[in-house]
Amino acid sequence: MRCDQNHAWWRYHPADSELAGIDLICPVDGTEAVTAGKLALADRVVLKLIPVAWDREGTIGFDDEHFIEISRRDGARSLRSARVFSFDEACRRLSWFKGLTWADAERRWERTGMRTPDALKMDSSAHEGG
């Protein structure tokens, strides 16, 4: 959306919903939008930071540990790390996937040696058989 003062702002709305009145108000100067349109979201991988913290009778463990996960926007495919990372390390690793399409992110996941729980199971069964 854009107002008479040329300020631009964005709001997410599902395809079947109408814009609410408050969404049409410029967050900078409070004037009403003079233009509004819909744009399709680009094909970008979804990045997730998943806490591993647990609570046992008031004792919190693994409070600074996180899995990382990447997924397609539609949720049809995802990859989650087999190991956990500190918050800072998880954020650093997620930054490797920023701005990538699912196909590019999936290739980078493999190239960077990120492992999924299923991959670890396959590795351990290969070692058991050898």
Short summary of the structure?
This protein is of the alpha+beta class and 130 residues long.
Describe the structure.
- The chain is an alpha+beta fold.
- It has 2 domains: 1-40, no CATH class; 46-129, no CATH class.
- Helix content is 25%, strand content 18%.
- The protein has helices spanning 87-95, 102-111, 117-129; strands spanning 46-51, 54-56, 59-61, 65-71, 78-80, 85-86.
- The longest helix has 13 residues, at 117-129.
- The N and C termini lie far apart (62 Å).
Which features characterize this protein?
130 residues, alpha+beta, 4-stranded antiparallel sheet, two-stranded antiparallel ribbon, 25% helix, elongated, disordered C terminus
The number of distinct β-strands equals 6
Q: Roughly how much helix do the residues carry, as a percent range?
A: 10-25%
Structurally, the number of domains stands at 2
Rg on CA atoms, Å: 21 Å
Note the total helix count.
3
How large a portion of the residues is in β-strands, by DSSP E? 15-25%
Structural class determined from secondary elements: alpha+beta
Apparent shape: elongated
Q: Largest sheet, described in full?
A: 4 strands, antiparallel
Quaternary state of the chains:
single chain
What order do the helices and strands follow? Answer: EEEEEEHHH
Mean pLDDT reading: 85
